[in-house]
Amino acid sequence: MNDLGQLVENFRPPAFPGSLFLSFEGIEGAGKSTQIVSVKNYLESRDFRVIVLREPGGTSFGEKLRQAILGSKNPIHPVSEMHLFASSRAQLLTEVTMKELNVPGTVVIYDRYIDSSIAYQGKGRGLGTETILRTHQTFPLSLMPHKTFYLKIDPELSYRRQKVRNAPKDYFEKQGLEFYQKLVEGYEEALSVFPKRICAIDGSQGEKEVFNQIKEILDQLLFQEQKEF
Length: 229
Ligand code: Z5A
Fold this sequence. Notes:
The chain is α/β, with parallel strands linked by helices. The protein is built from 9 helices and 5 strands. The chain has helices at 3-8, 32-45, 60-70, 78-101, 114-124, 129-135, 155-165, 177-193, 207-223; strands at 20-25, 49-54, 106-111, 147-152, 198-202. A 5-stranded parallel beta sheet has the order 2-3-1-4-5, with helices on both faces.
């Protein structure tokens, strides 16, 4: 086993019987927030208790970090960026996520998690996947979702969807097409490191088609005879 393979062995889903940890990933405009609303409604209709959290943020400390990063007018060093996102993540895991998952029948859904760090800081900022994984090998950052839905779109579609929305651009949205291309490569790298956890779904399809694919995977995970969690 190579170094990366050994490192990956450290990462595990949290051991809370009857609860599930999910995350959604993708570049801007991939449809994460849209799908999370549909998934939440679906799971609630099946009597799960659903908690949706976003990164960075979700705690008062994390929301301050979110403001500091996404509102920054000046460049932030990639190493600082990586640690700021990791700090927000560790806080959210301990203050909120682990307590919620301790209640059986709960599904915690994250809007972005470690794969965003692999894509944005690892590939986009050039720190490399191994650096991101090493930073996350200590508990609680070593906790992994049971399943991650990566909504895959290309940078051109991301730009088109951002344009339709016409919201003010934040720190990352000001980057050019080349940066977005690197993000797509970063997500592909995450997929190759965690092939069992991450499901890639074509995010350029209509909302309903994307949801149906997610639902199929969720149904297998939640209602199959031998649950994986
Ligand atoms: N970041 C990082 O660098 N490192 C890290 O470790 C973490 C984060 C955790 C947080 O952004 C930023 O932090 C992010 C990465 C960085 N970079 N940026 N910017 P955020 O939370 O503020 O924003 P976002 O995650 O990128 O959200 P988003 O732009 O809203 O994207 P989305 O949630 O995936 O998309 P959406 O809101 O569901 O949909 C976007 C639009 O497309 C909207 O008008 C929809 O109606 C439309 N849409 C959605 N689905 C479809 C389909 N299927 N067809 C057609 N139209 C659709």
